[in-house]
Every structure is written in C-alpha cells, then in structure tokens.
C-alpha cells in the first residue's frame, strides 16, 4: 500500500498534488495530510516500518531533514519545478535578510540573527561560510515571527523563506543573499 503525505494548508501546492498523483498513477483515496516539515520524518518512519510510502514536500524541507538526519535512505524520486509569478524569485527561497538601507558589509562583525527553526541546519551551514569571512553570530530560533524579532530589536538579521516578499517589505528588510531555492519534490525510498 502506498501512503501519500501532502501539505494541506498551502494552496500553491494543490496543482503539484494532482501532478504527483498522475505521475504515480494513483487515486486520492490514499492521502494523509501533514505539515511540510514533518513529511520527511513520517515517510522515513513508515519506510523503516515496512510500509511503502512517498511524500510531497518542498526541497528546502527535505534538504533540512537530510542535513539533520545522517542515516536516512530517503531520496528525491522526482522534482517538480515550482513556478509562481506571485513569488519574488518564482518559488520559495530561503534568504538572509537585513536592514533595507544597508548592506551586510556595512554592519558590525558581531551580529544577532533570528532563524526560522525549520531551517536550523541550512542556516548553520550558510552562517559557517560567513564566519570564515570574520563574522560572528548569536542565533535566535523562532517558529515564526522572525520579522517581529527584527522589528523589536531582538536581531540584526533574519534567515527565513521569502515568497511574496510582503512581510519583508513591511519590516523594512531586503534580501542580502539567497541561500536555497525550493522546488516541490516527491520523496521516498528507492526500491532497487
């Protein structure tokens, strides 16, 4: 039996669910819903328990899972290019954000950065590169409200997904760097 895991609260994923079901030649009666960040864990656990399962999620969330869990057998079975004209970069993009009126080079070398907790490993990997250039970071992890942390003086920078850019603009932030562009992926364990 195949179990499908789908992100339920993201309307932009609906077209990809239909495309995925066609790709797999399956019907909608085998769908379980879950949050995107939980999909890799659920698929991994189901697979380890002998169940045939595939998941639908963003490549950013899958990459984060891979970086945090070293012994997973999960792979990307198919990538579906995410293309949305409403998105600033055409797709969800993990970015380093900072004050709109400055550049990273103009900021002090010791900085506080607020990171969406879904992206701890991707952020750590990226910040390590900046630390090699002489920066030092105090890290704050929040499940959301990263822009609020900046607006209230709790952080100097933010690492979070930029989609339409509305919350970024409202907080007077701009993109300093793109860290990871996400597509929609079908994940599972490849049977040899």
Write structural notes for this entry:
The chain has 192 residues and is of the alpha/beta class. Helices cover 28% and strands 33% of the residues. The protein contains 6 helices and 10 strands, in the order βαβαβαβββαβαβαββ. The strands form 2 sheets. It has a 5-stranded mixed beta sheet, with helices on both faces. β1, α1 and β2 form a beta-alpha-beta unit. The radius of gyration is 18 Å and the shape is elongated. The model has no long low-confidence stretch (mean pLDDT 88).
What is the oligomeric state here?
A: single chain
| Gap from first CA to last CA | 18 Å
Radius of gyration: 18 Å
Beta-sheet strand percentage? Answer: 25-35%
**What order do the SSEs take from the amino end to the carboxyl end, as H and E?**
EHEHEHEEEHEHEHEE
What class would the helix/strand composition place it in?
alpha/beta
Number of helices: 6
Main sheet properties: 5 strands, mixed
Query: What is the 3D shape?
Result: elongated
Mean pLDDT: 88
Count of distinct strands: 10
> Roughly what percent helix?
25-40%
**Order of neighbouring strands in the sheet with most strands:** 2-1-3-10-4
């Amino acid at each position: 039996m195949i179990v499908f895991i789908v992100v339920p609260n993201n309307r932009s994923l609906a077209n990809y669910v239909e495309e995925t079901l066609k790709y797999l030649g399956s019907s909608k009666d085998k769908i379980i819903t879950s949050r995107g960040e939980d999909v890799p864990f659920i698929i991994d656990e189901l697979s380890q328990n002998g169940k045939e399962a595939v998941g639908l999620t963003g490549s950013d969330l899958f990459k984060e899972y891979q970086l945090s869990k070293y012994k997973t057998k999960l792979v990307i079975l198919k990538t579906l290019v995410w293309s949305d004209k409403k998105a600033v970069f055409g797709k969800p993009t993990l970015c380093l954000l900072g004050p709109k009126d400055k550049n990273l080079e103009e900021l002090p070398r010791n900085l506080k950065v607020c990171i969406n907790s879904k992206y701890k490993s991707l952020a750590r990997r990226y910040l390590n590169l900046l630390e090699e250039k002489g920066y030092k970071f105090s890290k704050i992890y929040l499940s959301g409200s990263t822009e609020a942390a900046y607006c209230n003086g709790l952080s100097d920078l933010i690492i979070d997904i930029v989609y339409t850019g509305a919350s970024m603009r409202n907080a007077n932030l701009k993109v300093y760097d793109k860290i990871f562009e996400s597509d929609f992926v079908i994940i599972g364990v490849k049977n040899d």
